[in-house]
Amino acid sequence: MKKIFTLIVGLTTLFSVGCDPMDDIYDDLNIQDNEIQGNIDYTLEEKDYTDILDLNYSNFNSVDDAKSLIPQVLSEKYPALGKGSLASVTYDIYSSRPKEDSLIVYSATNDDYAKYGDDKYPNWDGMSQIYDFLKGEYPDAENRTLVSLTYDYFDGGTKELNNGFFYVNGEWMFIQGFTQEEYAEMGESYANFSNEDEAYQKIPIYLKDKFKYETVEAGDIQPIMYKLYKSGKTVSYIAYFIYDGEMWSIYDNVLSQTLQFGHDGETWIPDNTIQYSFTSEDYTLAANELSSKYPDATDNLSNYGNFNKSRWDDDMLLEAINVVLDNLSPNAEVGQKYVVKYTVYAGGTSDETRSVIKSEDGSWVDL
Amino acid sequence: MKKITNLLFVAFMMLTALAQAQGVLTGKVVDGETDTPLPGVNVIVEGTSIGVTTDFDGLFTIEVDKNQGVLNLSYVGFASKSVKFTIANGEEKDLGTLSLQMDEGALDEVLVTAYSLAIDRKTPVAVSTIKSEEIALKLGTQEFPEILKSTPGIYATKQGGGYGDGRVNIRGFSSENVAVMINGVPVNDMENGAVYWSNWAGLGDVTSTMQVQRGLGASKVAVPSIGGTINIVTKSIDAVEGGKISSSIGNNGYLKYGMTYSTGLSDKGFAATVSASRIKGDGYVNGLQFEGYNYFVNLSQQINPNHLLSFNAFGAQQEHGQRYTRETIEEYKRTEQGPKRFNADWGYKNGKIYNSSYNFYHKPQMSLNHYWTVSEKTNISTALYASFGSGGGRRTEGDKIGSDEYRIGGFDQPIDFDKIVDENRERGALGATDMIFASNNSHQWYGILSTFKNRTTDKLTISGGIDGRYYIGSHWYEITDLLGGDYWLNDNSSDLNAGQALQVGDTFGKDYDGKVLRGGVFAQAEYDILDNFNVFLAADISNTTYSVENNLKNIEKKESDKVDFLGYGVKGGANYNFTDNQNVFANVGYFSRAPFLTNVFLNATGSTEANKDAVNEKVFSTELGYGFRLPNLKVALNLYRTQWIDKSIAGSYSNPADQNTRLFYNLQGVDAVHQGVELELSYNVTDNFKFNGMLSLGDWKWTNNVEGVKQDENGEVITGDDGNPQKLFVYSKDLKVGDAAQTTFAVGASYDFAPKSTIFVDYNYAGDMYSSYYVEDRDDSKQEGINTWKAPDYGLFDLGIKHTFDFGPFQASLYGKINNALNTEYISDANDQGNGAQNALVYFGAGRTYSVSFNLKF
Predict the structure, then answer these.
(1) Where does the source fall among the domains of life (chain A) (predicted)?
(2) Å from A70 to nearest chain B CA?
(3) CA angle A74, A76, A81 (to 5 degrees)
(4) Distance CA A192, CA B451 (A)
(5) In 3-state terms, what secondary structure has residue B471?
(6) Are A236 and A146 in contact (CB under 8 A)?
(7) DSSP 8-state secondary structure symbol assigned to residue A118
(8) What secondary structure, in 3-state letters, does B790-843 show?
(9) Options 3.30.930.10, 3.40.50.1370, 2.60.40.1120, 3.40.640.10; which CATH number does B2-100 get?
(10) Partner-chain residue, chosen from B656, B691, B839, that has the shortest CB–CB distance to A292
(11) Residue of B333, B825, B839 with shortest CB distance to A20
């Protein structure tokens, strides 16, 4: 008896396609068991650079380095996350700003005003005059030469200013300096700071006040020239200060940036995907735009505010997505990806997501 | 009970020492065709009220009070048999194996005729028969149509998995093209032809025989048997007193208990049978809890030998959570619950499960049957029947229900109805954004079916009859739960109550009645050319009148015109038993079928305008069959070719220029061919060890491309800017038909390890299932000839065991059953969305399920 049963089971197993008919499909679709899709925000920590990536410094040298190395960190940190996951990663990048190699301290004379100014008054009243002066007087300036220039400037009234002019890569660059009064406001009896620490502490506070009426955005970097009294003489220096959205602080040549990565089922790749959910205006827009082409489906869409799956097939839905994204982001670059979410009706309402990318011909196509 | 009575009676006889002759007869009754035991056969001593019924193994023991006489054996669908006996006093005599032939005769002849059953080696159609004992052994917790899955040409699934939500396709045709008849009465929906198995959820309990006639079938009445006919014969008159109590438990809280009791045939010729059961469970898939009550009543009165009156009523009141939303494979795999159990359509409200997709229905079916033996040669059976369906499905309004933001957690978590309720309450006088309503589909259905049969000569039998039906179906949306809102503002601009604040119980969106009046006559002649060669010819003609009445929309014409369709069919066939164990048969048929009401009134929800160009569909079918029979081997081979000629596909959409009118299209001449080979065999290796198998190879496809023109509501062709008619093109040529496995096979083995105990294993394979699509949507020439995505082939094992034993004075049976024993993950249903497996919307089949049941017969 047992033999017969074994035979039957054996025979049928031969005929059968194995116990897991779904295996091939899962392979084709690149679906792993227990795959998690999630969105995370992460800021790299020091040990991510040093331990996981084995770097000497806690920052990257370039954005390309960040793009190629961050996936390692994500795979290590979030092994469970799989296809479709998005990670917004904040990291530090080394981005040094040039400092002065040599310093020229100069105070403009009446001859200078006469030679480079455009009127008889002993001052300058336009920035171009100053640049003319610099080009005329220092035609052979070495790269990274800082001219700490004290000059009278007319702007409704004559004022003595001390600003830096920094010669880098063949261009003169304006570096904001401080006047005698400004040093006084910062609590200095003389037009200088006593030491670097004092400068780095006071300048941010002063900048906050100085730029209070101007639009400053997080990440803006402001070069500043300040003076120190050192070994009996006054020396000018360049320092950069960075705004974090609230406060200024000394820029340490490390810039914080954010990049988005997406999981393609195997690994994390830099990804510009934007997730977007349709609003009720979007449904209305799609219904209006496509009404002549699909009168029936759009009729239903404007009545119910969702896509009835029996009326909207995949191609039609893509057209609707094109309408909405073209409206939302008309200037999106080729290669821009979106994951759009919209409501469908198939007996009950549910959300559906679809990944699209802007193609060469400007249309949005399935990813 | 009767055993005790008999025992007492015997004891009493012995005590009183009456010198009355007596003895005990035993025997076994089997189906003459298959040699399988026939349970429930009535065994009666002629001229007395002494009777018993056979047990599940066809065995009976009867005490007789005379030395010689006649035993009458009778069973629905089989010819009665009389067996003479002589017995000495006190003797116990074994009459051996007695076989009943499925044939015409006496009362059974009436039933065979009335129920349109096919007779082996006589009726030339492809047929498979499933008996009540197989249902008891193999159905378990499956959907009722799934019992047919080992039958060639059948594809049965649970669909979403809700209780009663199963479906069955025959030869690639879906339910509107498969006739389902219960006790001879057609039960396909009168408006759209569909079969809702949830209406008949308890039917497995009271079915005595289920016969699947593939292809044209043996029905004389005009029925939509393009794919085939499923004939279900319920239990009817039980001549002997007795009953049964039973209980089953199974996976996911499945619990069923019930009882059946028959009074037996009284001296005055009255018999009653009552059966009732209750069923509930949580469902294998999440959120598919269900509860149902099944009942069956038969009251019969034998007025005199020539007149039998029988009243049948049965029904299944049920409500169950549903899984409507299909997901992509990838989405299912991402769910926490996994593809087999995930369901998006349920959540929690006030701490209790609350479904966004839910079904509740009750459809009692009643019939009064009169069987009249007019003469030896003539009989007439008449059924007057009525059925009242009430119930519907839950629907949702608003964008919150089902969206990810209103779930308790992620996209794969239950719906957070409480959050919606809170927000609706906060909105106060602004009214509900989201609410729950019922899409009700209730109906009343009255019919008469009368069949006359006359054995005109020895060789010629003529039958004929009438088929009359009246049906009115009411369809409306009714608010059932405002989810905490003060009211819901009706935003359906075409409703008479548009812009009004509606409350629970108010109607909106849809409210119309569909009416169908149908009358037909049918006739059939059977002629025995030789003893072993017979032919038949049958014809039917019927007129169907459709109309609709709109109760809600702001339209001038509330009642539609009446639209008539004349349908007819002719079929003929022959069977030749060219040796004692071989036969061949052939049949051919053509019919022209009225379109469904839903194809005539394309937008019954909003309009009473009929699609003036709706036409009948024509079907031409041919079939060849071969049968081979040895005592222990039975083989059936069928070849079929069904041509669907001129399938008409109609649709409508609202006119962009005027939203209140609709434009129509009628695509005519879409042709399909369903052809294939079916092999069925059973082989009894020994008396105890049996083997059966089935192979079905289908080749079902659309055969041509078609085009149609757009028309306005007056049937005028619409022209485009260039003055030419606006056309629709459908590229359907050579596309495989979807939604059913074109290749299936099954092998099974059973072993009787004790006289009344069996163990079995079945393997069912389904392959070449192309995902489902609407052929009219294939309007992209670039996709011409490209089949839809083919779902992965799969094979499933079922195991079961039955053990019968004496339990005091009762006979007890224990059944154990495991479906999908290997817990295989597979796709049972798929809707094509383009882009293959990536986008196909699917249902996964259930994983391993089990049930154990216990019966006690008395």
Answers:
(1) Bacteria
(2) 25
(3) 60
(4) 118
(5) strand
(6) yes
(7) S
(8) EECCEEEEEEEEEEEEEECCEEEEEEEEEECCCCCCCEEEEECCCCHHHHCEEE
(9) 2.60.40.1120
(10) B656
(11) B825
Q: What is the CATH number of domain B107-234?
A: 2.170.130.10
Residue B401 and residue A349: Cβ atoms within 8 Å? yes
The token duo for B67 is 């030395």
**Alpha-carbon span B200 to B164, nearest angstrom:** 8
If phi > 0 it is left, if psi is from -120 to 50 it is alpha, else beta; for residue B388 that is beta
B758 Cβ contact list (under 8 Å, min separation 6): B137, B750, B751, B752, B801, B802
Which value does ipTM take for this structure?
A: 0.71
Q: Are A220 and A242 in contact (CB under 8 A)?
A: yes
Going from the C-alpha of B264 to that of each of B273, B287, B680, the distances in angstroms are 8, 43, 38
Nearest by CB to residue A21, choosing from B491, B659, B792, is B792
For chain B, domain boundaries: 2-100, 107-234, 242-857
Of the candidates B28, B230, B31, which has an alpha carbon nearest to the alpha carbon of residue B127? B230
The CATH class for the domain spanning B242-857 reads mainly beta
Contacts A313 to B, Cβ<8 Å: 777, 833-834
Q: Which residues of A touch B287 (CB under 8 A)?
A: none
* Contact predicate B561/B546, CB 8 Å: no
Looking at the partner chain, which of B326, B653, B825 has a beta carbon nearest the beta carbon of A346?
B326
- Note the pLDDT tens digit of each residue in B130-187: 888 888 888 888 988 899 999 999 999 999 999 999 999 999 998 888 999 988 888 9
Q: What is the nearest CA distance from B429 to chain A, expressed in angstroms?
A: 22
Give dist(CA B29, CA B58) in Å, integer: 5
Residue type at B827 in one-letter notation:
I
Task: Write out chain A residues lying below 8 Å of B720, CB-based.
Answer: none
Q: B402: nearest CA in chain A?
A: A350
Report the SS3 class of residue B597.
helix
Is A70:A258 a contact under the CB 8 Å cutoff?
no
How buried is B808 (Cβ within 10 angstroms: 0-12 exposed, 13-18 middle, 19+ buried)? exposed
Q: Is A19 on the interface with B (CB under 8 A)?
A: yes
Q: Dihedral of CA B700/B703/B705/B706: which sign?
A: negative
Name every chain A residue with its beta carbon within 8 A of the beta carbon of B652: 296
Q: Is B653's CB within 8 Å of A4's CB?
A: no
Which residues of chain A from 22 to 51 reach within 8 Å of chain B, CB to CB? 22, 24-26, 28-29, 31, 33, 35-37
Both tokens assigned to B430: 């602004």
CB-based contact, A292 to chain B, within 8 Å? yes
Residues contacting residue B177 through CB under 8 Å, at least 6 positions apart: B193, B224, B225, B226, B227
Write out the two tokens for B210.
């289920």
A367 touches B at CB < 8 Å: no
Surface of B (281-340) touching A: CB under 8 A: 324-326, 329-330, 333-334
Does any CB of chain B come closer than 8 Å to the CB of residue A334? Answer: no
The candidate with the shortest Cα–Cα distance to B473, out of B512, B517, B518, B519, is: B512
Q: Tell me which chain A residues have a C-beta less than 8 angstroms from the C-beta of B344.
A: 348, 350
